[in-house]
């Protein structure tokens, strides 16, 4: 006769939280323990009473529950690109995944945990190393098969290796994904990996391993050498996700500048929230002249904004973007030192007629005969400064882009000039202040120079 069973499982006293004994009945019994420790299971077999009315105990049987925790994960491979901190302190440290919470909570989404991004060019292969901790230390021995199934855009990616348990740890090193990354720009946020460990022989391991999540950027092509700042790679991959051509990528990235809302990455590699909207000369006194300074402070000049746009393109392997300095062709009168004149950035008004002396021609107006009106809007600044000695923009594939104002692209020097400049100023003879002239829409009155 096939017996039926009743059973009782005695829980270790330190089980978190403390639980009373568990019991049940049926022809089979299955219990999944959720904490390491030794459990005592007593099974009572009750035969068919009509044939043999008797009851007896089989057992007790003892077994050990095993917990496996993820200790750390590090991405690798010749195509992997390390990502740098925005604050200029260098490349993020490894491992890329690490639970630093106290107590450990088996994830990496708390402040201080390692949620560090990595970058790979499209159509390349990811590699990773991972270390797992076994509790109790003797809960797993011999050879095991470690498998990670990563899900996200495209087909799943599978990492698998057979290794031997070493003490209380299981480690896999530089294991390749079974397929190449997607053949387009992408941002995995997150790339989720489901882990399992199976003994090489014997019964399957009856325990679960927490999933891990990762931030992986996939670029159009191999980034140009240099620091791959977190915001730089984030803006490019987020804006151009799904594209696989240089022209589409360029247009998608530029569209992030034209609305004049350009934000740093949502959070850094240690889960500190960011998302700061970067500004142009706002306020003027703290604007940084470098991209690195603007990434750190959130406020930059035209130099910083041009460097940012160029760096985003270079991070996608688009190396044709060059920074150009623009400055007026006019210089101060030699009696006033012969220095460089300046430009009046939109929007200015000129009283008519001007009364500057003919000797200052083609300058027609005195300083007091012009008014700086609310300016053309720039990056998070509705009224930026109205006069400069020079300006920096981007030239790429024969077109001009002005990242500071989100204007363009323009097909010619003159087109940018007419859209951006209302006039010019310089020192003339011994007049108080300077003299000024309106922009001539038919003439190129600026020099376009490589810095």
Q: Name the average pLDDT.
A: 87
Q: Span between N and C termini? A: 93 Å
Q: Determine the strand fraction and express it as a percent band.
A: 35-45%
Number of strands: 29
Number of domains: 3
CATH classification, class level of the largest domain: Mainly Beta
Class inferred from helices and paired strands: mainly beta
Secondary structure tally, helices: 5
CA-based gyration radius? 33 Å
CATH topology name of the largest domain, in short, is Coagulation Factor XIII, Chain A, domain 1
Low-confidence runs of at least 5 consecutive residues = 27-34, 43-63
Oligomeric state = single chain
- Can you tell me the CATH architecture of the largest domain? Distorted Sandwich
Q: Mind describing the biggest β-sheet? A: 6 strands, mixed
Describe the strand arrangement of the main beta sheet, using strand numbers. 6-9-15-14-11-12
Q: Globular, elongated, flat, extended or rod-shaped: what is the shape?
A: elongated
């Amino acid at each position: 006769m096939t017996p039926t069973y009743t059973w009782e499982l005695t829980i270790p006293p330190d089980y978190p939280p403390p639980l009373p004994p568990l019991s049940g009945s049926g022809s089979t019994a299955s219990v999944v323990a959720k904490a390491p420790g030794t459990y005592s299971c007593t099974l009572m077999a009750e035969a068919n009473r009509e044939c043999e009315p008797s009851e007896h105990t089989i057992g007790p049987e003892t077994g050990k529950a095993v917990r496996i925790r993820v200790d750390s994960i590090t991405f690798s491979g010749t195509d992997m690109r390390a990502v740098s901190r925005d604050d200029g302190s260098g490349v993020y440290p490894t491992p890329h995944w690490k639970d630093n919470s106290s107590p450990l909570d088996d994830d990496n989404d708390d402040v201080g945990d390692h949620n560090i991004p990595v970058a790979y060019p499209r159509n390349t292969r990811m590699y990773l190393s991972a270390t797992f901790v076994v509790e109790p230390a003797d809960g797993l021995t011999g050879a095991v098969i470690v498998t990670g199934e990563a899900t996200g855009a495209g087909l799943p990616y599978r990492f698998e290796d057979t290794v031997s348990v070493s003490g209380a740890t299981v480690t896999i090193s530089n294991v390749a994904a079974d397929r190449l990354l997607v053949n387009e720009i992408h941002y995995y946020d997150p790339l989720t990996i489901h882990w399992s460990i199976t003994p090489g022989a014997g019964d399957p391991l009856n325990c679960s391993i927490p999933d891990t999540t990762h931030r992986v950027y996939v670029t159009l092509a191999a980034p140009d050498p240099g620091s791959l700042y977190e915001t730089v790679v984030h803006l490019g991959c987020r804006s151009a996700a799904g594209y696989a051509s240089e022209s589409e990528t360029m247009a998608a990235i530029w569209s992030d500048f034209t609305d004049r809302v350009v934000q740093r990455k949502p959070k850094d590699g240690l889960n500190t929230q960011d998302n700061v909207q970067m500004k142009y000369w706002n306020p003027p006194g703290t604007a940084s002249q470098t991209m690195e300074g603007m990434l750190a402070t959130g406020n930059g000049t035209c130099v910083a904004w041009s460097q940012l746009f160029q760096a985003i393109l270079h991070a996608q392997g688009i190396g044709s973007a060059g920074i150009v300095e623009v400055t007026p062709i006019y210089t101060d009168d030699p009696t006033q030192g012969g220095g460089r004149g300046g430009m009046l950035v939109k929007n200015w008004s000129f009283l008519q007629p001007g009364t500057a002396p003919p000797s200052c021609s083609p300058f027609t107006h005195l300083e007091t005969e012009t008014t700086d009106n609310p300016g053309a809007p720039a990056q998070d600044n509705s009224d930026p400064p109205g006069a400069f000695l020079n300006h920096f923009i981007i030239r790429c594939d024969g077109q001009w882009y002005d990242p500071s104002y989100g204007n363009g692209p323009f097909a010619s020097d003159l087109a940018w000039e007419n859209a951006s400049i209302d006039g010019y100023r310089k020192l003339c003879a011994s007049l108080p202040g300077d003299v000024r002239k309106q922009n001539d829409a038919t003439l190129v009155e600026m020099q376009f120079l490589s810095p």
